[in-house]
Amino acid sequence: MLLKKMTNDSKRLMRVGLFFLCSLLPVVAGAEGSRTAGHVGHTGEELTFCARERMEREHEIFRNTNIEIEGELHEQSASSCFEPRENLYFTALVVAEEKLGALVPWSREASSALSRQRAHEACKVLGYEESRLAMDQCQRERYAELMQMHEWKHQEEAISHINTRNEDAERLMQGCVLALAQNLERLPKSIVLPLAYYDRRLRTYPAWYVEERVNDKDWLENMQSTSAYQVLEDALGDDCPGDMIWWLY
């Protein structure tokens, strides 16, 4: 049931293409029904903190080709503006971005210089060089056409990059949730999820966790400092990379 719910919620976020092409339209926060999202007052006052954070995240998901995050999400106050499932998906996006690699920055300066050169050469071939006014007009028109071609090419590459990254993030999230379901019996009964809210020191430990450390004197001497996160991370391994374990629930 959890995996099905996570899949349906994340698929809703995958409709990137049309949203990206309409990026000049006003951004709608989409925060209706959220238990923590902000709102715009009737008198037009500034957006609340959570409403701004939600708008920024939607921009990151649907229009940013290079998602970056400073530190860990669970340590940031903005994370409380979102449901755990939303934070799990976002942390999966960060991991997917790292694996995919950021889209190579499109060099406007290089494209502009090349387009001006090509526009000049084209207008010479067309015979406009004898008239300065005609040459200038021709170059302006050809340059605008060439730059528009670059803009569309870049936009197509950006849409493809965002779609691929978001699809990869969905697969990462599904794999992480499945790993949790498969390892529930191996986890301490005292673990409460998500760990972003309930990471506590454990008083009891799974037998397999102790057996793997029975010869580790340092751990045995400091076993009382073992946190729920450490056990869950060890149980799920690479199935929940990055910051994802904190937001499983």
Account of the 3D structure:
- With 249 residues, the protein is mainly α.
- Helices cover 55% and strands 0% of the residues.
- Helix 4 packs across helix 6 and helix 5 packs antiparallel against helix 6.
- The N terminus is likely disordered.
Give the helix/strand layout.
Blueprint: H1 2-11, H2 17-21, H3 49-62, H4 84-100, H5 108-125, H6 132-182, H7 195-198, H8 207-211, H9 217-221, H10 228-236
Helix pairs in contact: 1-6, 4-6, 5-6
Poorly predicted runs = 1-45
| Beta fraction | under 5%
Main β sheet profile? none
General form: elongated
Radius of gyration: 26 Å
Oligomer: single chain
Distance between the termini: 12 Å
Number of helices: 10
User: Portion of residues in helices?
Assistant: 55-70%
Q: What structural class do helix, strand and pairing data support?
A: mainly alpha
Let me know the average pLDDT: 79
Q: Order of helices and strands, N to C?
A: HHHHHHHHHH
Q: How many beta-strand runs?
A: 0
Which short descriptors sum up this protein?
about 250 residues, mainly alpha, about 0% strand, elongated, disordered N terminus
Provide a brief overview of the structure.
The chain has 249 residues and is mostly helical. 55% of the residues lie in helices and 0% in strands.
